[in-house]
Amino acid sequence: MTIDLSTTYLGLELKNPFVPSSSPLSKQLDTARALEDHGAAALVMYSLFEEEIEAEEGVAQRLQNQDIGHGEAASYLPVHDDLPGHREKYLEQLRRLKEALEIPVIASLNGISPGGWVRHAKALEQAGADALELNVYYVAANIEEDGAAVERRVIETLTQLRKQVRLPLSVKLSPQFSAIGNLVRQIEAAGADGVALFNRFYQPDIDTDDLELDQTLHLSTSADSLLAMRWIAILHGRVGLSLAATGGVHTAEDAIKLLLCGADVTYLCSSLLSAGPGRLDEIHAGVLAWLDEHEYESVAQLKGSLSQKNSPDPGAYERGNYIRLLSSYRVPQSLWR
Amino acid sequence: MITIDGNEAVASVAHRINEVIAIYPITPSSAMGEHADAWSSASRPNIWGTVPEVIEMQSEAGAAGTVHGALQRGALTTTFTSSQGLLLMIPNMYKIAGELTSTVFNVAARSVATHALSIFCDHSDVMACRSTGFAILASNSVQEAQDFALIAQIVALETRLPVLHFFDGFRTSHEVAKIHPLEDDQLRALLNDELVRSHRERGLSPDRPVIRGTAQNPDVFFQAREAINSYYDRAPNIVSEAFRRFAELTGREYRLFDYIGAPDAERVLIMMGSGAEAAHETVDHLVQQGEKVGLLKLRLFRPLAGEQLLEALPASCRRIAVLDRCKEPGAAGEPLYKDVLTAFAEHLTRGGSKFTALPQIIGGRYGLSSKEFTPGMIKAALDELEQAKPKSQFSLGINDDVTHLSLDWDAAFQTDADRASSHAVFYGLGSDGTVGANRNTIKIIGEDTDLYAQGHFVFDSKKAGAVTVSHLRFGAQPIRSTYEIADNQAEFVGCHQAVFLQRFDILAKAKQGATLLVNSPLAGPDFWTHLPRPVQQAIIDKQLKVYVIDAYRIAAENQLGRRINTIMQTCFFALMELLPAATAIEKIKGSVASTYKSKGSSIVEANFAAIDAALANLEQLEVPASVTATTELRPPVPIDAGTFVTEVTGAMIAGLGNEIPVSKMPVDGSWPSGTAAYEKRRLALEIPVLESDLCIECGKCVFVCPHSVIRSKVFKPAELKDAPDGFRWLPIKGNEFEDDLAVTYQVSPEDCTGCNLCVEICPARDKTNLSRKALNMHPVDTVLERENEYWDYFQTLEEYDRQKIRWTTIKGSMLAQPLFEFSGACVGCGETPYIRLATQLFGDRMIIANATGCSSIYGGNLPTSPYTTDRNGRGPAWSNSLFEDNAEFGLGMRIAIDQQRKEARQLLTRLRDEIGAELADGLLAVSHDSDEENAEAEIHEQRERVASLKVKLAGIDSEAARNLLSVADALTSKSVWLIGGDGWAYDIGFGGLDHVLASGRDVNVLVLDTEVYSNTGGQMSKATPLGAVAKFAAGGKPVVKKDLAMIAMAYENVYVAHVAFGAKDVQTLKAFREAESYRGPSLIIAYSPCIAHGIDLHRNLDQQKLAVASGHWPLFRFDPRRAAQGLNPLQLDSKKPSVPYREFAESELRFGILTRTKPEVADELLARAQEDVDERFHHYEQLAALDYSS
Fold first, then answer.
1. Which end of chain B has less neighbouring CB within 10 Å, N or C?
2. Which residue of B has its CA nearest to A57?
3. Where are the strands (E) in chain A, listed by range?
4. How far is B8 from chain A (nearest CA, A)?
5. pTM of the model
């Protein structure tokens, strides 16, 4: 029996639900091709960061304003009129990916403020992106700003973006909202075609030798996927937009769980960064084998079959689960010796 | 028409008509080479379709040699240079001319260094070349400079004579003007391809070999020299013909001698260069007034066509003033003056018909080092010709109250032509974008209106907090006013920094009813009340219209930081109404957009928003009817600073140097040290303040301070009776100090530049709040008064006894007084901490030979000197000879000291009995410069003995005693330092440095390695690292940095250290002390982060750490003394590279430009750089591991 792995995400017909998510893997054409060869159904590009655009513009500004008012020199570094900006490099890479790949390429914009930078979306559309993901990586560190304002920021940015482009749009959210379900509903109302749950914040660390903050990248583990699993399960069937599960998809089992909950696609990042594009084959084969073993005909059949709406135990996705876990917890003996 | 500066106009022609361009950077001509390099890098072809090869050489001598070689092979070859650079080319110029080789040297004329270096204009460099055999053509304006760059090439090909085409440095090279461009077709039409081919055919070829450059003997040399005469004889006619053909094609007419003025003029000026344009304007004005005056502009100075010169003069002229922009001391007159005299003498001797009697001919000097040359001065020269007995030799533009050669002039005299122009003067800071905005304004007006425009820019000599003055003229007629806008002439004065109103008389230039625009956070009555009395008075007296805008606020609100250029520019256009406001705004926005290419970028949007906000925030001040302020302008120096400092240094600081008479000038270029301390420039917005409860007394803040503004002193707390309230101190720790001593760290708030490095390095933090250090930056306004009080008190405390200092520690050595302070170096400079350290350790006995470059500019550019003295009046004696000879210059000092010491010891021995055996023997016992741990005590004792000796000698009446007295100081320790940058040590001065290192003499060489020519704007040197982008290495330097240390170590008797003070301060300290103590040559190569690295210098220390950790800058010391002890002389002081080279490179824009523009090339070069640092470190490790024990 042929098992149909195809799925639809943001209106895009995909051959399977395995999508490498936004990561440095899309920076090299060879790697991107390898991902496609290993069965990736679409590719989310690395992000075009608001801050990177600003930083590159800062470089341009700095090169244009080198004069310190000394009679012997008006500049100290040669000024290249053709210094390409970060945006131009991103667009170039997008064009190259589109030329090199047959699978859809989803561009990614990463920023936190409604404002000028969303205008870059138009350029991404013109460069051939099949869809656009808005990555709202925002740490609400200002304690004067309330939760509603943080949500408004997302919606306003999305609204502006929607006005710029006709492309399918998805929003990649962090889990740190008080009412994710309601926010996703607002996002849908503002014109998004999908959400990707969840973005992982890169947590600062402390170097205890020199008492300085350290920025270290920690890759996800399978355990991290449970967070997305719950919310996708809750949202499936209750919202009309596409759902991508992201964070912690390392194995076929992780992917199957997320599909069961209702994900339209599963994003892969840490697993590919650590194991390489070959991991896609393993997941692909593992999912096929599981579907086969469990006599599923298609992913469509599987998708959402264990969402909260379809679950025999919907309470497990909510607070009840919490009480059960706590009451069953036993302190390991060894800890107290 | 296009709006362009002189350098670009000349380079544009030269690049299009040459095949090889060999250059070396020198102000003010560097930009020509840089343009040529940039165009070749962008593959812009010449008119023959090939891209010229541009090569930067190790010196101008090298460039001239390369030019000579390329010419010998028949390539069309050129160079650009000035001043000392041109002098270095002279030997080759004789050769090139002697071989009748067609070439053009384009020269931005600049003063030759004499009693002082000067980057400004006069013709002394060109005049030094007048006997080389080069034809010499003078152009007077940006338009002419462009045109003559072509005409010179035509002449060179047609006469076979090489041509030196010169135009005035800064005045023409940097003036922005509206000119008719020369198109490629015009170049092609005027250059004869047949002659180009002939030039090629004369090139050396093994296919048709000749032998050129022979050595000739008395039998033929002379005749051969005379064989060229006919080429010179016919040259003037060929030049005339070239002018004619040029005029035919372009409509612009030039002659060998252009006469301007009354056809029946009786009084005539003869001159060349940009000053002739001001003279042209003045003569036109005077002729209109009915005066019988004229001007002869000389275009072709060599070969001088005397008869044609006389032909061009009106027969009516009976008195002539020849004006030379140079000085030939001791000569019977300056060169042009003597040539004119000769022309007349020949004419009369031959019985020429035009003049039957010799007119009265006088000679004047003007404009040395860009001294102003104004209509008033020109009129004064013409007026002198009317005197019954005019001065036969005179000077213009100064007050010579010693030999009384100067002419008085009417500073208020103005021509009708200048009155017909509009004038605007702008005062800004170097970093606020004022000059850039004004260049842009000139471009907008030049290119979008029918008006002619002129921009001239004046800079002070500081690198941090430089003051710029922009002079802009606009008018319906071409502008010949080659002088600054004078007092009471400007219709518009822009003051882009309100603080200038407190310091300079900037309203002097405003004319009655002028507009004054000030950038100030204050508005309305507040603004008025804060103005000093003389400013209020001038506003009322001159009925100025005053507008105020808080440009910094608008810039900050629009994410532009402190760039206020577009905001102030918008206000200027709105107030001057040269264009309709809406059009002006559209043009300003257009130029912002084109600068940043992509119209949608956020910088462009931010600028647009700021431009729109500018007019909305511009407020006119209601000027009160009467003066309310009582404060005066800040005096430039304290009133008790002494006569010389008050009258000379003070006047220079106040911008009144032009008014100082000759009698006040030192006659031999010697100036007092210690004057930088008077300037108090108050540049910092934030300054560091000590938290004494946290301080751990490490001294690192003092160690890293680039401007020597943070100091430490040790004292007894009981002595602090008069200390101001809150004066901070803490008990000192360490068993090397006596009990009951305290220490303090204090900042001089008005000298601090706010670089933040002391806070960066401070290791002491509050355990409960890690963001609070022992030093923290505070807004200067909140602490200035208190910190000034503390600083004043701090200065009254005694310096700690040098004999008690434990010099091996940072904390100890930083107690020594810096004898280098408050220089004009960049904020966060990476060089100056090394110099400060040397002066702390050895300053009271230092003699410094300083190569030209950044360190000679912040070290010795007047008005002030950062080198200073201790309480005994001792301090570094400093001198700059040249760029190329610094090692030899310093060696000469060493040899002289040694020789004088030898003489002194001989005389001491001879006079032993008269002096007293004990004293004489004590003196003789110290035979070398002190180098031991107890050097300070030994030096002190020897100084005491020399003092006693002097007393004894004063009482002995003999020649020997008097001679010994004159050399007795040589008996005390001296420390000779040869300081310079990498441009000197790796390139132009390398040959000399190599020789000095090989001499074995006891000199200390400090190479401040910024890895580029920093002072002239970041050109590549052989110290530039692989993969870094620099000028002349726009595509990334393809070869590795020269390993100067390894070359020096090869001598085996040279002490060598590779240091980076921000990475390992103790190693730097140790290296300086070891270098000094080594009785032979020592070389310290010091890593010096620089703005040319494309970093913010507040990251100076981090970048040094990265440079060391990545292996870019390994730390080591090579001490030949160790070999004698059976130890390996090489000690590695840094670890194996632990950070990828790429990480270091990506943190600096000099590499980052390449990763952005040519990522593949960057990848390749950085991969090679990684291999290179790994291999180099491995090599050093192997060397350091060699066994010396047997």
1. C
2. B603
3. 7-9, 12-14, 18-20, 43-49, 105-110, 131-135, 169-173, 194-197, 204-207, 212-215, 242-245, 265-268
4. 13
5. 0.94
